[in-house]
Amino acid sequence: MKTTRTKGLLAAVAALALAGSLAACGGSSSSDTAEGGPEGWRPNDGRPEGEIHVLVLGDAAASAEQAAADRFNETSDIKVVVDTGPTAGTEYNTTVRTQMGTDSAPDVFMSWGAAGIEPLIKAQALLPLDDFIAEQPKLQDMFVPSVFEEEVVDDSAYGIPMRGVAPEFLYYNTKVLEDAGLEPATTWDELMDQVPTLQDAGVIPIGLAGADKWPEQIWLQYVYARMVGNDAVAQGLAGDTDVWASDESKAALADLQDLIDSGAFGSNFASVSYGGDGSAALLRQGKSAYELMGSWHYATVGDSSNLGWVAFPTMDGGSGQPGEIVGNLSNFYNVAADTRYPDAVRGFLEELYSPEFQQDEIGLGNLPPTTDAADYVESDADLDASAKEHLTFVSGLVNDAPTFQLSWDQTVPATQQTASQDAAADFFNGTIDADGFVSAMQDVVSAD
């Protein structure tokens, strides 16, 4: 696929896993006859009249969408209903996949990049947004181009960026480190050296939501960014199997294996979930010292009183460029092709990037993928010092990055998302060794 280079403020998904059958997704437009239905019938005709439904992750950031719906509904005859789905991306994607083509299908839902929505595009289940943009150009113009273009497929736009740009980096509990007499680790050697000290203090050195698999993949993404380099990784994800078998790849895996073998992640990480306040609670309560996670974690942890953050450590001997980052360009809003109220949907998308919405996102710790986001951060007098510091850090991290690699499971085809996550989990759990991981990733990127 590609590595997105950053210029200016921004150069930001778990991708929408739609590998299952999409035969029931309906027609390509509201005038088509859906499979199995009478002439003129559309899958979401079972919805109450006068409503459009927006399905979002059921996390802390959903409050911004609900506030936007409340504002929109004050003046619209067609009302927006915000439905909160699961908090974990994998379960959320399953919910979307099972609802598409039924009378409970959402009009608007979330995705994480082009690879995840391509099956829906092929099934003609997504509405191209070019007409929306022609009527309201700011639906494109207000966003950072490199983010917006992620869901432009075959010259048609299918997604509007939403929520925040989401690089990944180390969060830490400031009190835990202070009590242990430690400073935040900025090099790999420092992180390794801190493990026994933190174990002696009775805390898990690094929290990890291993039950969800994708948090384990973040660790692989970063050691590869440092040791292999994002440009080479992008070639590997695009099908160059030699990248995975390279000496740099083996060095990255060896370093990560040393960290796992040290007990840095504790003994029960495979049973810790990200949803349901799992790994975030460990960090917030001081039961873990560090957690590698995306910028959305600020809102998930909730209490910022003992929360700090630092870029992923540097590593000696690697081919990566200093400052390379990984993560998600943004979430995106997609529109079902069979929505009954496209004009209302367009109006709601406009409301979602009103000044009020951007300020709500910033208050949650999210940096909107808009060209003027930095101005909002700087001028927001109601933003507390911690949130402003966090957003300034995120902005600077992205600004200074020579490359920004989209998360691996968002880059590979949707049919291979689970396989890429399984490879990471199997490596962490010891089911496969370094050679097994190399072979698994070669299979992932070679699959049709």
What can you see in these coordinates?
The chain is of the alpha/beta class and 448 residues long. The chain has 20 helices and 13 strands. Strands 7, 8, 9, 10, 11 and 13 form a six-stranded mixed beta sheet that branches. Strand 4 and strand 5 form a beta hairpin. Helix 9 packs across helix 11.
Number of strands: 13
Shape, please?
globular
Secondary structure: helix percent:
40-55%
Q: Helical segment tally?
A: 20
Could you tell me the mean pLDDT?
86
Structural class by helix and strand composition = alpha/beta
Write the SSE topology.
Elements: E1 51-56, H1 62-73, E2 79-84, H2 89-99, E3 108-111, H3 114-122, H4 130-135, H5 138-141, H6 145-148, E4 152-153, E5 156-157, E6 160-162, E7 166-173, H7 174-179, H8 188-200, E8 204-207, H9 214-227, H10 230-237, H11 247-261, H12 279-284, E9 288-294, H13 297-301, E10 307-310, E11 325-328, E12 331-335, H14 342-351, H15 355-363, H16 373-379, H17 385-400, E13 404-406, H18 408-411, H19 417-429, H20 434-446
Parallel strand pairs: 1-2, 8-9, 11-13
Antiparallel strand pairs: 3-12, 4-5, 6-12, 7-9, 7-10, 7-11
